[in-house]
Specification:
The protein has 136 residues and is α/β, with parallel strands linked by helices. Helices cover 44% and strands 18% of the residues. The strands form two sheets. Strands 1-6-5-2-4 form a five-stranded parallel beta sheet.
Amino acid sequence: MKKLNLLVCLLLTLFMFTSCLESGSKQTEIRLVTADEMESILQVEDVQLVDVRSPEEFEEIHLTNAQNIDFNSPTFDDDITRLDKEKPVILYCKGGITSAKCAKKLKDAGFKKIYDLEGGLSKWQHSNRIRVEVKS
């Protein structure tokens, strides 16, 4: 009888440990996307499109319907509280480095679904795959 109780306890412990591992593996994933993938996501999902460059860079050129949250601003941590953590976020910058750093910060802040535009705006701005607004 003692062996049976011990076996049951071991199985329960193993089950609880496995459950904890599974719940931990469902963490937010940051997904790098192409311009084509981004356009598809924008059409299918209710997405928050965020340009993480400076306001001056944003004013010169940005993706249509993007909002600007400057990653290098001292108020960045407060600024991202305007975003809905439950809604997907697509991030972009000029070349992809700053948006990757921002994606990690959003992940750490508890955002559920994060996309990062591969290569940033400079890779895609002259293609016909994305819509940009340029200061005239």
